[in-house]
Amino acid sequence: MTAHNIDPTASGEDDGVYRLRLYVAGQTPKSLTAMANLKRVCEQHLAGRYEIEVIDLMQNPRLAAGDQILAIPTLVRRLPAPLKRIIGDLSNTEKVLVGLDIRSQTAQP
User: What is the CATH number of the domain that holds 50?
Assistant: First the structure.
């Protein structure tokens, strides 16, 4: 499952688009919550500048090794560099924003 919300004219790796990969294990309540929270945060703070790839480790367990996934759900920011990981259901919006470098720890809403 992949969700895209990027400008079709944008291309290249350093195009300002956040490329995110969410690792889940089936359609558990925690996985569904993480997906919904991620979509909400992206729509509010990265509208038009993000791409989400959801990887279900129940279907493809071998894919966990590539991004060194030890717990689920885990969000991996692949671009912009450097690679970042956030573990959990992404319910703490401020933690997600800081973890993805969308908002600094000292920034006020």
Answer: 3.40.30.10
Is residue 68 domain-resident?
A: yes
* Cα-Cα-Cα-Cα dihedral sign, residues 104, 107, 108, 109: negative
Q: What is the mean pLDDT of residues 8-14?
A: 44
Burial code (b: 16+ CB inside 10 Å, e: under 16) for 73-96 equals: bbbbbbebeeeebbebbbeebeeb
- Average pLDDT score over the chain: 84
Query: CA triplet 60, 18, 28: central angle to 5 degrees?
Result: 40
- pLDDT reported for residue 12: 44
Given the DSSP bridges, would you call strands 74-79 and 84-87 parallel, antiparallel or unpaired?
Answer: antiparallel
pTM value is: 0.80
**CA-CA distances (angstroms) from residue 52 to 12, 36, 77?**
16, 12, 9
**Mean local confidence (pLDDT), 5-29:** 74
